[in-house]
From TrEMBL:
Pfam short name (any one): PTR2
Name of the protein in question: MFS transporter
Database matches in PANTHER family: PROTON-DEPENDENT OLIGOPEPTIDE FAMILY TRANSPORT PROTEIN, RESISTANCE PROTEIN MDTM, PUTATIVE-RELATED-RELATED
Record's keyword annotation contains Transport: yes
Source organism: Streptomyces actuosus
Length: 501
């Protein structure tokens, strides 16, 4: 995509003479391209991941194991956003943290490109760590480009940035997925590494256009804190190394020795974090009440993401073996389904933004609770719709591709109803003390949802086939009931929210 940098005036030094990116600070172009290439690498690899895990030419795992690995990986990306924010706030600052994260992601994809199971899982870990570091900080740097919330260009800047995310997510399965499925899996992973390398290179070259605020470490660690943090980190690392060495040398190590602890961490950490905030004596009565209300939104969001993220695992693996992946006789790679959501997001997001404003002017905009409950009902409806292709496949036929496209369409509408509202309510209901940390708490809802999927699908724990009619119907009903429950108790939640609406 062209950078579209424009010159407002031929007279340097006069107001408005600086180069801009569609009228925005030039640093936005740097962050736009960085995020676009990072999302290109992330979503391209993610589109290939479940298919590679089950392929005879890949790791040749069962569907349950593949879904568990995929879900744990996605949950880790969002879980690691919390320590990613901490690294920037206490140690490196956002600009250096993003540079380091890009390098880690690139190295991770290079490990995935090597044809060995051991390096593959090392690569997954590195990409998860790097993505967590980057996710927590690059949006903060976009905000640094503007003169506070009152800058009229701020919302437009974030909209452009959001387009970069979806451009990368749209193109990745079409390019990386095609190469991975039709040429060689590891060439596809290597393309993801190349994408991140391009993003990192232009980030380093264009970083001079970023705000000086992005260099600041807001609350740097003292020398004593650094030493204590390093000591604790090395102790935990040594404990893990000794434990897994003992398990490995005894001949008992299997993949689940890593998967199950990570799954449990993804379930326990969100509970601990929210519990710690609720017990904080520095919060006043109104703030504590708002956090209790936020728990409703958090649980609802976890159920939502539990179903939504199966679009990349359960639906993709169903398409691999039980769908007719063709349009008018032209067959396309299974990974291309992962481009449906981002292109629909780009098409529908402006429509939803206009719709909420139109309803607001007439005093009819739905409340946050109604939007949330609608998102849950819709995500449940997407899995009720999924029952149709499941029934077709059980009859010995291959389901038409448009059934799956319809499922992804309903999920996209559900996402646009719930996700932006969730981000907004998180910032509104955050206690003053946790203003910057609450976005990480919102990401933990994704971690919790995917961890539930990993636990249920893992053959050593739940062992549930997630593409079976009974379980899909149960998940759909759970989401619909959760949406109805949120709506029924809306007055109670509203009273807890206080003056937040």
């Amino acid at each position: 995509m062209a950078s579209s940098l424009t010159k407002d005036s031929v007279h340097p030094g006069t107001p408005g003479s600086e180069k801009t990116f569609f009228g925005h600070p030039r640093g936005l172009a740097t962050l736009f391209m960085t995020e676009m290439w990072e999302r290109f690498s992330y979503y391209g690899m993610r589109a290939l991941l479940p298919l590679y895990l089950v392929a005879p030419s890949g790791l040749n795992l069962g569907m349950g194991s593949a879904t568990a690995i995929y879900s744990v990986y996605v949950s880790l990306v969002y879980l690691l956003a919390l320590p990613g924010g901490w690294v920037a706030d206490r140690f490196l600052g956002p600009r250096k943290t993003v540079a380091v994260s890009g390098l880690i992601i690139m190295l991770g994809h290079l490990c995935l490109a090597l044809p060995a199971a051991a390096t593959f899982f090392v690569g997954l870990g590195l990409v998860a760590i790097g993505s967590g570091l980057l996710k927590a900080n690059i949006s903060t740097m976009v905000g640094h480009l503007y003169k506070g919330p009152e800058d009229p260009r701020r919302d437009g800047g974030f909209t452009l940035f959001y387009i970069g995310i979806n451009l990368g997510a749209f193109a990745a399965p079409l390019i990386i997925g095609t190469v991975g499925e039709n040429v060689d899996w590891h060439f596809g992973f290597a393309l993801a590494a190349l994408g991140m390398a391009l993003g990192l290179a232009q980030y380093l070259l264009g970083s001079r256009h970023l705000s000086e605020k992005s260099d600041v470490v807001p609350t740097p660690l003292s020398a004593q804190e650094k030493a204590a943090t390093l000591r604790k980190g090395l102790i935990w690392l040594a404990v893990a190394a000794v434990f897994y060495a003992a398990v490995g040398f005894s001949g008992h190590f299997t993949l689940n020795w890593a998967l199950i602890p990570l799954t449990l961490i993804g379930l326990i950490v969100p509970i601990l974090v929210i519990g710690r905030i609720l017990r904080d004596k520095d919060l006043d009565g109104a703030e504590r009440s708002q956090v209790r209300a936020y728990v409703w939104f958090f649980v609802a969001a976890a159920i939502f993401w539990m179903i939504y993220d199966q679009g990349g695992s359960t639906l993709s693996l169903f398409a691999e073996g039980k769908a007719d992946n063709s349009v008018l006789g032209w067959e396309f790679p299974v990974s291309w389904y992962q481009s449906v959501n981002p292109v629909m997001i780009m098409a529908l997001a402006p429509v939803f933004a206009w719709l909420w404003l139109w309803l607001n002017r007439r005093g009819k905009e739905p409340s946050t609770i109604v939007k949330f409950s609608s998102g849950l009902v819709l995500i449940g409806a997407s899995f009720f719709l999924f029952l149709a292709p499941l029934s077709i496949s059980e009859g010995g036929h291959k389901a038409a591709a448009m059934w799956l496209v319809a499922v992804y369409f309903v999920q996209t509408v559900a996402e646009l109803t719930l996700s932006p509202v969730g981000l907004s309510v998180t910032t509104k209901m955050a206690p003053r003390k946790y203003a910057s940390q609450m976005m990480g708490v919102w990401f933990l809802a994704v971690t919790a949802g995917d961890s539930i999927t990993a636990l249920v699908s893992n053959p050593a724990v739940g062992g549930v086939d997630l593409d079976r009619t009974g379980f899909v119907a149960m998940e759909a009903a759970l989401a619909a009931l959760a949406g109805a429950a949120v709506w029924m108790y809306r007055r109670k939640v509203n009273s807890l929210m206080g003056d937040v609406h």
